[in-house]
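QA checklist item 7 of 12: single-chain prediction sanity check.
[x] sequence parsed
[x] length recorded as 256
[x] structure emitted
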Amino acid sequence: MGLVFVKRNTWVCTLLIFLSLVPIGCSSGMKPQFKTDHFVFIYNDQFDKKEARGVSEVLEANYDRISDDLQTKPTNPIDVSLYTSRWTYATTHGHWSTGGNIEGTGQLHFLQHGWDEQDINKIAVHEFSHAVMLKLLIDREPQPLDASAFDKKFANFPTWLYEALAVYEAKQFVDPKSLPFFAKGNYPSIDELDSRAKGQKIYKVGYTIIEFILQKYGRDALIKLIASYGDLKELHTTKEEFAKNWHDFVKIKILE
């Protein structure tokens, strides 16, 4: 089977259907510490145990909500690896620019403090949202899953939708009034938001995109959009029209 290895800030996909044969974090002294109803928490002795318990409470508190939002039953249990050291995180996963990533639907990895997000609880919910969305896509594929074919298909999933959904579910709202490009009327296109090389604005505006979709089209339409790998024909619109309507939504609802 192939791997689906999804990294924030870097669009590299390989699908992990089965867990690695190498125990998580064995080279860095990480080990399973405790379990909750739906998660197993893995970290080393340097990680604050009280903070880890706080993360577990947040994930459990959001488990049913995100499951319901995405109309998907998550993998159970899910391993959650917590890192205090960027060096350990980066050498384990191969990327210095990420704050978190998922391995398939059953493993979450994230730093205590990511580059753009200092709240570990929001990082946790963000990554969990990615895992549930991936589960949604896998569940809708013909079974048994052809992992290699799925890898190729998933590699084309649009960044703007992938990140906007996680930003929304993690409640990482950024007030558009605080964004200079919005204030100047320089609204990003969908193509711009789909490119991580163009400033990664999706993390700043993703919340309002999902808010717009839910208000204009409804939740069922959002699920269909995800299941179609971001094909805006599901919403009977084009990228240009969608972007314009979202821009108008932001202007009317928030900026004016």
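[x] summary fact logged: The beta strands are 5-7, 31-35, 39-43, 78-83, 100-103, 107-111.
[ ] second reviewer sign-off
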